């Protein structure tokens, strides 16, 4: 997601952000119009829209606009309504580069203040809009174009996590070893980078029935995904992957010549990095291995039922079964206080790390991703641990309580962690608590951030992080549908 730790002062963000904004014609500056989002006892309470002017928006979806109007009308709190309207369309408003070439859609989606596309982020950024595809052909083309672009990225380098649209653009990380090839922004090996394109293609097909996405290009990309997963099981103790970086941050590169700490090959897949783009402590990252199992099973169904390739479908199923057996044996561990729960990382020797990272996939997000039902006993026990004092990355401060990430240190909570807690909750009271914290910790900006200090929300990192913004919007839409009473509340400042 982020490729380097950013200072919490928003004025010190990645310097190329302004360059890309100018080139793309995108602005996050205050729009000239003002919107009324509610009334209080003193009359109309107005907030200034933070959306770009209509003629500067990168992509417009009528169904999304209708949802904004419909949901906002039922939000009693003016500030929360303002946050929702700013955040929900942020991916479409500011990050999309969509075009048609020879009848083929092509979609490139940057993460926000970094002018590169992550396979993970780009999928997650459009995910909340997928329900509108049936009523919006242009949006359907946008998603289809993203699938095509992701195929090209995987085939270019299956170990890379982030890419440029322009292959001649010099990488900010050209000094990494090995150096990124043209078109690659960064080459951090993360299992989930190859899972998210499968998640997107599967969801697109399930919602549209359009099997035309399963082109030779897509099939070749998926075969490369499975080959890479098998290679990174490292059963013979070797890997072609290395990642070295000149940096003062310990988490920016794996130890031992960039290959990571020792593992005992047990069938799990090595992930050099977490979704936070931090290197793993123990190389078997459990949420990402669980995500890989889900992705492999989705591939098996597609190749069997749509492509009539039983042999490759069997290969996908066999690998999924193997990883699942290793999860059951090495990743489900007895905790002194919570019983059998998932460890976050293991090494196959018996060592395990008990914590979580706010980035997705995380242990908290397993219910959101559909890997577990919220009521599954192992998920409930793991979730109870994650929200306790026994999790070193669950922070409580005067401003909020929530999951953190080693990526941003020991004091910063991630809005994404709070959002995922609410999205995976079955308790209206818990959802209300989470929405309250999110509403009160945006530091007056009208947007979500990467992280904020647990005692001072004004001390935050990243002021343009489209995934977090859109995910917040997804939460509010879900709350509107499932817990409307939460949105009928007027919050205290």
UniProtKB/TrEMBL annotation:
One of its GO terms (biological process) is carbohydrate metabolic process. InterPro entries: 6-hairpin_glycosidase_sf, 6hp_glycosidase-like_sf, GH125. It holds the Pfam family Glyco_hydro_125. PANTHER family: MEIOTICALLY UP-REGULATED GENE 157 PROTEIN. This is Metal-independent alpha-mannosidase. It comes from Allorhodopirellula solitaria. The lineage of its organism: Bacteria, Pseudomonadati, Planctomycetota, Planctomycetia, Pirellulales.
């Amino acid at each position: 997601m982020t490729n380097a730790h950013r200072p919490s002062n928003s004025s010190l963000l990645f310097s190329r952000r302004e360059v890309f904004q100018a080139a793309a014609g995108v602005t996050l500056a205050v729009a000239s119009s003002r919107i009324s989002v509610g009334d209080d006892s003193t009359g109309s309470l107005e907030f200034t829209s933070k959306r770009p002017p209509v003629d500067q928006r990168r992509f417009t979806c009528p169904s999304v606009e209708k949802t904004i109007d419909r949901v906002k009308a039922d939000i009693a709190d003016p500030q929360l309504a303002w946050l929702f309207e700013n955040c929900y369309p942020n991916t479409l408003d500011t990050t999309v580069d969509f075009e048609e070439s020879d009848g083929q859609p092509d979609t490139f989606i940057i993460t926000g203040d970094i002018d590169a596309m992550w396979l993970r982020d780009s999928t997650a950024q459009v995910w909340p809009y997928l329900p509108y595809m049936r009523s919006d052909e242009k949006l359907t083309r946008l998603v289809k174009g993203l699938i095509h672009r992701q195929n090209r990225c995987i085939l270019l380098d299956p170990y890379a996590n982030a890419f440029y649209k322009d292959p001649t653009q010099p990488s900010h990380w050209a000094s990494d070893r090995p150096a990124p090839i043209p078109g690659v922004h960064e080459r951090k090996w993360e299992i989930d980078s190859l899972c998210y394109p499968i998640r997107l293609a599967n969801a697109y097909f399930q919602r549209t029935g359009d099997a035309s996405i399963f082109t030779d290009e897509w099939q070749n990309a998926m075969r490369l995904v499975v080959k890479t997963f098998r290679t990174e099981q490292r059963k013979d103790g070797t890997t072609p992957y290395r990642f070295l970086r000149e940096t003062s941050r310990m988490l920016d590169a794996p130890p031992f010549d960039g290959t990571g700490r020792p593992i005992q090959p047990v069938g799990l897949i090595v992930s050099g990095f977490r979704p936070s783009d931090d290197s793993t402590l123990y190389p078997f990252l459990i949420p990402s291995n669980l995500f890989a199992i889900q992705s492999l099973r989705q591939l098996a169904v597609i190749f069997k039922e749509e492509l009539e390739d039983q042999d490759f479908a069997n290969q996908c199923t066999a690998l999924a079964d193997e990883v699942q057996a290793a999860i059951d044996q090495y990743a489900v561990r007895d905790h002194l206080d919570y019983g059998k729960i998932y460890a976050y990382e293991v090494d196959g020797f018996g060592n395990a790390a008990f914590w979580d990272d706010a980035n997705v996939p995380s242990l908290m997000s397993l219910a959101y991703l559909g890997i577990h039902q919220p009521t599954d006993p192992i998920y409930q026990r793991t979730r109870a641990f994650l929200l306790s004092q026994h999790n070193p990355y669950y922070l409580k401060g005067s401003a909020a309580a929530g999951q953190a990430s080693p990526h941003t240190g020991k004091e910063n909570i991630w809005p994404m962690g709070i959002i995922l807690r609410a999205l995976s909750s079955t308790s209206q009271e818990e959802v209300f608590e989470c929405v309250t914290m999110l509403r009160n910790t945006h530091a007056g900006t009208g947007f979500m951030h990467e992280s904020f200090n647990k005692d001072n929300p004004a001390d935050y990192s990243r002021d343009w992080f489209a995934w977090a913004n859109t995910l917040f919007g997804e939460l509010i839409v879900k709350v509107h549908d499932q817990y409307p009473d939460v949105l009928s509340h007027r919050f205290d400042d």
